[in-house]
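Regression check, pyridoxal-5'-phosphate case 341:
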Amino acid sequence: MTPIDLRSDTVTRPSAAMRRAMAEAEVGDDVLDGDPTTRCLEERVAELLGQEDALFFPSGTQANQTGIALHTRPGTELVLEANAHLVHYEIAGVAAIAGVQIRPVPTPDGVLTGDLVRGVLRPVSPHVPRTSAVAVENTHNAAGGKVMRPEVMAGVVTAAAQAGLPVHLDGARLWNAAAALGLPPARLTTGAATVMVAFSKGLGCPVGSCLAFRKELRSRAWEIRKRLGGGMRQSGILAAAALYALAHNLTRITEDHENARLLAERLSDCPTVRPSVPETNIVMIDLVREQDSSDMVIAKLAQAGVLVVPFGPRRLRAVTHLDVSRQDVERAAEIVATVLR
Ligand SMILES: Cc1ncc(COP(=O)(O)O)c(C=O)c1O
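Current build output:
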């Protein structure tokens, strides 16, 4: 039997219709003189995010790194939430690429606030690094898909602006945040100098991200992307998948949220696990019994047909997505209950 794959919302396979859109895409050489489908995607994304322009990237990591490199200079400090993707999962990229030091801000729930930002800004002094930018993540992956509300974002933007700092928004799952709040994505980007969004997560694309920004940042962003090896030639084949996803898969994201809630509800009947209350498509599952380690339980679940990833010694992460149904989620909850009886 095919396992129910809840490891990530990146495991989706492009549908037949998405593959058709890719096959039929009009393409050019995007590095040489432009690719029409890629340009169409960039304009669509800029519009959706309420930004002036956007650039297509092979990955969210490269788009994040470009955003940070745009705003900072070596030897300065980047303020961000302590468990951000940029801190843990980009191989110290901001240190290696932009030459900046991370200033991690611990929070109870993954949500950076204006007051927390103010609290870590250092007075200018010849003895301490200058802060050059602030980064936020919405939704916050390690905090279980936690949504940053527009008023909280506004607080961060104000605190940053008062200190003359730009804000980068890692919106790999901004689509989920917008769907959870019932707001257009552009409502969640106000005041951000750069916004990264991904197509390879909740939207079901094989690859791809965009970085959106003011028009004047385009040429510098282009150079940084090129330096990082992110210039792609007939990228319209990939951009077509993203355009297809924005047209067909964006509005169904709430189904993933319903499935995550259902999974958490069903798991809450099982005394050996403590599921989080998901706001979007991520459920964190804490193992209650001391003898249950993440690695051991993951191996047993895999044998029984459910795939999840570890997120701590006794914490698992399950993510709902386009390729898992309500029935899959119900079955997954039954399997967890049986394995951890
Ligand atoms: C919050 C967040 N930011 C950035 C990324 C990086 O995206 P990519 O895997 O496309 O490099 C991810 C990937 O899972 C993510 O969850």
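Comparison notes: The pocket of pyridoxal-5'-phosphate is lined by residues 59-61, 64, 85, 137, 141, 170, 172, 198, 200, 209 (CB under 6 Å). The longest helix spans residues 253-267. No diff flagged against the previous build.
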